[in-house]
Amino acid sequence: MIFKEKVLVTGGCGYIGSHTCLYLIENGYEPIIVDNLCNSNTEVLNRIKSIVGYKPIFYELDVRDENALDEVFCTHDIKSVIHFAGLKAVGESVEKPDLYYNNNIGSTNTLLKVMKKHNVKNIIFSSSATVYGNPKRVPIYENDPIGEVTNPYAETKVKIEFLLQDLANHDKTMNIGILRYFNPIGAHKSGLMGENPKGIPNNLMPYVTQVAIGLRDHLNVFGNDYDTRDGTCIRDYIHVCDLARGHVLTLNKLHQNSGLVIYNLGTSIGTTVLELVNAFEKANNIIIKKEFAPRRAGDIAECYANCDKAYKEIGFKTEFNIVDCCRDSWNWQKKNPNGFN
Ligand code: NAD
Ligand code: UD1
Question: For ligand 1, what atom is nearest to the CA of residue 127?
Fold first, then answer.
């Protein structure tokens, strides 16, 4: 294949990174993946090849390993970086804050140092709606306050965002995209790629699909006494392929010497837990056994995005709705009952 540019993709074997690699390849960008495989599997590289006919170059390394990373930049003429690598389990981050600070912030520091050495100016960072904490209003806009967060995972995202913003202020030649993802769900329509959680899933959709496949007995719906239309929490669920496309649009924007850009990537639509379960049942003709359980500590009632800025500046618009998400998540789970293992 002939590519126009090499893009380093840290964490490219993971859920969002792997889907983004597909879109990069389809749009003429060559992903060079680095991943330490702490939460992923190299089988995903074969799946990428099955879908787009090209197996990305891959290096098994920890982004904190400066020498190993430097070697990759010496070997390849990298022009841009998409930085997905990180740990993301909120509960685990409360148990092991040092691990989260070390991994998430440490990897970003090393990456920025090596980028500077090689004069690489473009970087997209995976941030999260979690930086808004308990939002004062919904929908949430990019200029709403961030930083009042309640767990170490969120704290690492906030700290990295501030670091990148300071960097952009200091060095006007840097082009930095901070993408705040809302709730990614779904899978590639082929059923060859999807989310592959280790152990008991923390997040709603993988839990639902594991109930559907019989790995879990029932779904616990955490809280039905919130001040929402059916008492359950509202989130903004975005198809992982829409999210992946958002990265390519952002990368194109960085190439226009954008400086710092910050976008919410969501659908602008709030969906309750019960609405999501209903949509799953209807889309797939499966009943999901569920029980109401107490609220989960740290949960907020409502979180959904206003995505006008991403639409105006990069033309970002979602193509998939909640039914598509439910169908594709189930298709992936059904075809891969044990994920990539
Ligand atoms: P994931 O765990 O599937 O992917 C992350 C990848 O990074 C994994 O393949 C893991 O092995 C790798 N990794 C972790 N630490 C590393 C290190 N030090 N060096 C090299 N590789 C390392 O997670 P994901 O859902 O694809 O998330 C990607 C990014 O998006 C993360 O930064 C996450 O915090 C962020 N994010 C995810 C969500 C979500 O709901 N999935 C929401 C908001 C933000
Ligand atoms: C979680 C993380 C958040 C992260 C986001 C996307 C927590 C506290 N927050 O948020 O930092 O950015 O994922 O990765 O973990 N639910 C159930 N039963 C379940 C699982 C979830 O009822 O078994 C409910 C939750 O209470 C919530 C909704 O489903 O209301 C969505 O949960 P989840 O998928 O974990 O996402 P977030 O809570 O948005």
Answer: 44
Residue with token string 């989310």: 195
Instruction: Work out which ligand 2 atom sits closest to the CA atom of 129.
Output: 12
pLDDT score of 162: 98
User: What is the SS3 assignment for 322?
Assistant: helix
**Exposed, middle or buried: residue 224 (CB in 10 Å: 0-12, 13-18, 19+)?**
middle
Residues 6+ apart with CB under 8 A from 235: 182, 183, 204, 270, 271, 273, 276, 303, 304
Check: pTM over 0.90? Answer yes or no: yes
Mutation test of ligand 2: which of 202, 274, 300 has the most ligand atoms closer than 8 Å to its C-beta? 202
Taking CA atoms only, the protein residue closest to ligand 2 atom 38 is 299
The answer to whether 153 is a known catalytic residue is yes
Distance CA 289, CA 200 (A): 17
Nearest to residue 7, comparing CAs of 31, 42, 37, 35?
31
